[in-house]
Sequence to fold (54 residues):
Amino acid sequence: MPKRKRKHQENEEIRHPDSPDGLVVAAANNRPFAERFIGVFRLAKAGVKKDGRR
Fold:
């Protein structure tokens, strides 16, 4: 039995599972953002509740 193709609307966004996340693209194109993002991510991973840099 042949598989049926799923029809999608013209304005429906097609998701690409291999494409990187939006934050990854932003970090790749903006080095200062990437450095801040990595720092905050490491703090969050370590379990720090609030960043004291304010």
Remarks:
- The chain has a mean pLDDT of 76.
- DSSP finds two helices and no strands in the chain.
- The first helix runs from residue 22 to 29.
- Helices lie at 22-29, 31-46.
